[in-house]
Amino acid sequence: AGAETVKRAVQLDAASRFQESLVCYQEGIDLLLQVVKATTDEAKKHRYRQKISELTFLSDGKYHKQIRIEENATGFGYEKLFHEYLTEIVSEVWVEDPYIRQVHQASRYSLYNFLRFCEMLVKGPCKVKTIHLLTSYDAGDGRSQQMSALEEIKQSLSNYGVTLNIDFSSSIHDREIRFNNGWTIKIGRGLDYFKHPRGHFSIGYCDFDLRPCRETTVDVFHTKHTKKM
Question: MITD1 C-terminal phospholipase D-like domain location, by residue (predicted)?
Answer without folding.
Answer: 75-222
